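pasting input
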Amino acid sequence: MLFNSLEYALFLPIVFLLYWFVFKNNLKSQNVFLLLASYFFYACWNWKFLVLIISSTLINYYFGRWISEKTKNAKFFLWTGIIINLVILGFFKYYNFFIENFVEIFRIFGTELNIIPLKIILPIGISFYTFQGIAYLTDIYRKDFKPSDNFLSFSIFITFFPQLVAGPIERASDLLPQINNKRIFNYNQAVTGLKLIALGLFEKIVIADNCAILVNSIYDNYTAESGSTLFFGAILFSFQIYGDFCGYSHIAIGSANLLGFNLTKNFNYPYLAQNIADFWRRWHISFSYWLRDYIYFPLGGSKKGEYKKIRNLTIVFLISGIWHGADWTFVIYGAIHALLYIIFIYYRKWTKNIRIFSSKITDTLYDFTAIATTFVILTVARVFFRAENYSESVEYLKRMFSESLFEKPNMSRFFIVLMFGFLFLEWLQKDKEHLLDLSDVRSKATRYSIYLAVLFLVFYNVGNRQDFIYFQF
Amino acid sequence: MKVFFKKISFFLTAIFVVWFLVECFYRFVPNNYTEKHKNIQNNYNKTEVLIFGNSHTFYGLNPKYFDQSSYNIANISQSIYFDKLLFDRHIDGFKDLKYVVLNIEYTSLSQKDNTMEDFWRKYFYQAQMDLEVSIIPFYDIRQYSLALSRSFKNSINSINQYYKNGTITECDEFGWGNIYTYENRRLNLDELAVRTVRKHEDNSMDFEVNMQRIKSIIKKCNEKNIRIILVSMPVHKSYSEKVNHEKVKAIHSVAENLAREHSNTSYINLFYDENFLDDDFFDPDHLNNKGAEKCSEIVNEFIKQNN
């Protein structure tokens, strides 16, 4: 059941009504209902994987308790729990990748191995709930959080349907107390939720899905396109993936708001970032912070010398890359980000962020240049993310950076207006919580007209449905 | 909570009104499905040749050019699955049916059920052609609302078309698709062919399910003493050059074998027919009205010779 489907448009209101009208008086019954709704949501995709998610819940629940209770063996239980989580994730997501590369390495040395890759279906959301489980175990080990003694609450923490399949990756300290405490309907929270759902649908259906049609066509036929078309194709993909994932996150947070929950903000106008460090503070925030808290800091962060800082950053970005998918293109994508991040750190250190001229106009120009440069660099790196394989990425980039880069792109102006119009609106709203926060618009008629226009655009564009890109991760 | 519901009711009312109007549009304005369903029943007593298939026969075989009374029940993107459903639904109603024409195209044998092509069409077949479409699950609410089955953009386009032309029906009283005219034909056939071939390529050579369906139609026709004519419709060379030739060979071989194995079955292969020139095509894989005349006469001549 996708968030942009008719099924979800029916599922959510039914859950909302039952949740607030039938089960509102008893926290336990409300939670039981929430868990069943979450299981139903997951089962709509593939009911067989309910076994997997329930197993994952049981493993993390009991290991969390053992880490807390058996303090002498806490480290052992922590590592065993983490390894079990990673083995499950590794089997479903990376088994074939490792096998194929293993066979390839042996082939290089002249030995043909006859290992056939398995036909494995990747369980939806596995990367997200596995990371959530690992964070839970680590927080308990660090004594940042006491283990849950309520299996029902913990099961909801792992399977809460709005964020089950593509995040935000929630911390137990944020979500579990909300599950354990009685929720009271809050008008403002619910209205914000609806606005976020409308915004998310707009980002997914109007921005991402429209871009997807052209991006697919350009990438499928990139050998016949000019450099300028390929360049705009790469830019369109940046908007597609943003609309897709940010849209998903907004719908997730909005749906949770309707049920009285607050989830972590996952995007904060990432394409207004002025450098790569700024970008990672704005893009997939829950994942960036997860990497920081559970990989970068435990490795020593930036406090153990320059060499270790570079090493740790490289490890973090390589993990970030491979997390996105079992392919070398994702590893390269991660490596490029590591390189850019390291270059940026030293650039900032040496230049000390000094601006030779400083006035309102030059500062604005500087900001604009920084935003544009960051965006273009990240867009070029994303070619590795989108292309089918390494050679296609290289070929795409070669063709893009050729003489034909300066030709007129073979693309409708509509897309260029759509993308940059959207970015301009974000720039106008950059100090607001989200794009549809119209608290400054005093006229009720204007506000309602904008909401209706958004709804119209969403409904008008519904139909050429594309799956959410991040579902495959 | 009351204020919340009061405010969202404003938006819900707007959505509901639009939904209701679009639903009324689909329920009351005649379209290909309603017209074909009505006309085929009106023609039960006189039809001697019944034409099935997808857009290739819908636009490419015009009953007007057949000597015998004919009806074209083909439709855009109509798969063999729906051909079979329509055949089963109507076959017993015909009093004097002598020939069934069924097209065998590059896409038809390997086509899976319930693809994006069928996404909204299946609901129209069920609601407006009185078919029991088993690929629609019982819990799918789109079967109760045609407005929900099509994208809003397409609905707006259809409404716009209705106000411009006064109709959204794109076939004549004999079921022939009459909007692909010589005057409106596409000129960039080579460019279009690349996209069309890509769209049609499913990389599948699994013909079994659809072959069984055709065999079942042949069997039933045999019982009723009806002859089956399998036709591979003409396509422009820009299309035929780009498709997978191995697959084309396999498809044609299946059709030839069916004709060989069943005494009531014949096969006409026009896929590479060079008598069809650029001017006969509307686009790389569809004939225009001029090409349809030529193709219909070929099939009609075949029927006359085998009568």
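fyi The mean pLDDT of chain B is 91.
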